[in-house]
Design a protein that fits this description.
single chain; mainly alpha
Length: 196
């Protein structure tokens, strides 16, 4: 099997060979970007990511067989430049969830389900927004990018220990928020039934 490293080396002599790298990895990079900045902006992130990768392909460390961490690192930096768009996306998610809640069909059970879904989207958006940019980036590379700790370290150009400590901090913070949310729900008479 041809490795990403081999494709990149070949593309230095034959630039059109780089298209194979795009075909291999555009899907995961595009999905990651869409989850971060929305579908429309993701197209721009994807294009810019591969344009930068193409221009900087001579700097790729060919000791790595896979270009995935390198590409996710480029994508993360492109997304970082588009923080304003990301913030706008999360605000629109919350707003659309609120609009969806106000247009819920009749029927108490269906309305309750929709209200719970809206509350979940709003809570997730708020929790992500409350994280530092570094912690959020690390979490999203892990959760949405499906990268290993080592790949995240390469993508963000940080030691693996930093990735571990960031994810641990995020887990503790999100766990504390979940506990607080559960307490608030219980005090408002909304509890989750066990085994339901």
């Amino acid at each position: 099997m041809t490795t990403d490293s081999m494709i990149i080396r070949r593309s230095l002599e034959e630039p059109s060979a780089f298209a194979e790298l795009f075909e291999r990895h555009a899907g995961p990079i595009g999905r990651f970007a869409a989850q971060r900045v929305g579908a429309e902006s993701a197209k721009d992130v994807l294009s810019e990511t591969f344009l930068i990768a193409f221009r900087k392909r001579a700097t790729f460390d060919t000791a790595w067989d896979s270009a995935v961490p390198w590409l996710f690192g480029i994508a993360s930096r492109v997304i970082h430049k588009q923080r304003t768009r990301e913030a706008r996306h999360w605000r629109s998610v919350v707003a659309s969830a609120t609009v969806a809640e106000s247009h819920a069909p009749s029927g108490a059970e269906r309305a309750d389900e929709r209200a719970d879904a809206v509350a979940g989207v709003q809570a997730l958006s708020a929790r992500l927004a409350a994280l530092s940019a570094r912690d959020r980036e690390t979490l999203l590379l892990y959760a949405w990018g499906d990268l290993t700790y080592e790949q995240i370290a390469v993508a963000l150009d940080v030691p693996v220990g930093t990735v571990r400590s960031r994810l641990n901090r995020v887990r503790k913070r999100l766990g504390a928020q979940e506990t607080q949310t559960t307490r608030e729900e219980e005090s408002n008479g909304r509890t989750v039934e066990q085994g339901a």
